[in-house]
Amino acid sequence: MIRSLPRSRGYTMGYGLYVTLYFVFLFAPLAVTCVLAFNDSQFPSLPWKGFTLDWFLADLPARTGIFHDRGNLSSIFTSAQTAILVSVLATLVGTCAAFLFEQEEFPLKGALYFLMLAPLVVPGVILGISILIAATTAGTFTEDVLGIDVGILRPGFWLVVLGQFSFITTFVTLVVSARLKKFDRTLEEAALNLGATRLEVIRYITLPFLRTAIIGAGAVAFLMSFENFNTTLFLVGSEPTLPINLYLQVRDGSTPVINAISFLLIVGTSLVACVNLYAGRKTEAS
Amino acid sequence: MSAAPHAASGPSAPLKSGPGMRLTLALFLTPVVLWLGLLIVLPHLDLLIMSFRMDPAFGDEGWSLENYHQFFAEPIYWLTFVRTAGYSVLVTLLTFLVSLPVAFYVTKVVARNTSRFLLTMLLLPFWVSELVRVYGWMILLRESGVLNHWLMALGITGAPVEMLYNDATMIMGLVYTSMLFMVVPLVSVLESLDDSLIEAACDLGAGPWTIMRTIVVPHCMPGIVSGGIVVFMLTLGNYLTPNLMGGKNSLWFTEQIYNQFIASFNWNQGAAFGFLLLALSSCIIWLGLRLTGQKLSRVVQ
């Protein structure tokens, strides 16, 4: 049954086969996408016509590699800008929220905590439309009553940032809170006794303790923002983010350029994920 | 300057409040209240209000239940809703059935150092964008896809078979997209299950099936509930997979919402749909927590 118990051969082999199939199922679409990014063919399909880097590097009329593809490059740039801004904002506010819920006492704390968890159970599409509606209401209000046209409130870059920030912050809060729970508060008391102010304690004692958790949460926030589709779909303006741009291309047909982008995404996210896992393990060990 | 909580406080008692404490409370509270108030509470209130109003272009601007009435009057709307809910439950169940053996294998059956490696491998695709994963399935399964190429090369089929754009493929895609959210909580609860319990049960003569049913599953309940909630919610709110892998007849409710907002430009109707979807997901999550006696705050940890 388990590793410490004797097992029949049929059980071991059957179980091993199931798990192998599971892993094949898990990796098949990713592997196929990566391999076909290097196929010397106009379509992302077999037969294999030889190895080429054209879908990355070429700049020909028939083939535009990703590094010369203006539309996709600019959407990657938009996504990166969004993700950087969202991860910085979410990390700042999420860390504040972690301190608030772990270390402060105030009325209605339970209700606010529940609200903080709400974005986890609200579907992303709903979050997107409600922020779109609220921003439009606010925009109409400022224009009709105050006579000011606030561009931020129209679908576009800033609305995407706000929409993604609204739920990614919850994840940051949970990650940082989990680490803050393990903090030995006698350290704080000692510092306070020795004459430090509360802010000094946070600056010199608590924040250094939280550093790896905050960096890890920031990395996760970056990835979540970079890949978000559901919420962004409703808030996006004339500058699509990468997932939206890819979606439009996949819907209307496909070229191996999409495979090339996917390959870069798979390699990039795997690297970030590995670094994150490695760093997380080191923190746990120490 | 020093607000030293010298006398009374034990190691874990909250620090006494002083001027410095008030300042930090305000410092932490302000951004959090702004975030939750402006980006969570207000938008959802606005969504609710909008769903009870008529589109100015369609008549008077008063309060009305017309948007909800439309939902029940048009079978295409509520049928899509029921289908989406039913399929989401099915996907959650399938995901659980597929994931439990894998989680058990990784935590309990293989040697410990292999376990670490397998766990990392399980997590990797979770980081890759859903769009890339769906795209991978599309180039595998479509008429000119990789799988058809192989099937024909092996002589199993004579002509290419279209495997995309039907309900079964869509469900497979939804299970694929969400199974990692089930495996992770299952692995973490299984890690806390003491092997000696299983050994004892085995010594006392229990078979694998009895051990699963009476020891493993009850112990895993918190993980099953939290995985189930996440999977259900993600499936219900999914747009990409049904849109790209489902056929013309497998409309998902999120697509109805999208159509109302982007194609018909009837935001009031879309708001009503959105609120119904939100109500459905909240109800089922509440029910799930209730039936298993769990708290949301514990489940998300």
UniProtKB/TrEMBL annotation, chain A:
Keywords: Cell membrane, Membrane, Transmembrane, Transmembrane helix, Transport. Pfam families: BPD_transp_1 (PF00528). The chain crosses the membrane at residues 12-38, 80-101, 113-136, 156-180, 201-226, 257-279. Residues 76-276 form the ABC transmembrane type-1 domain. It is found in: Cell membrane. It is a multi-pass membrane protein. InterPro entries: Bact_Polyamine_Transport, MetI-like, MetI-like_sf. SUPFAM superfamilies: MetI-like. Belongs to the binding-protein-dependent transport system permease family. CysTW subfamily. PANTHER family: PUTRESCINE TRANSPORT SYSTEM PERMEASE PROTEIN POTI. This is ABC transporter permease. It comes from Nitratidesulfovibrio oxamicus.
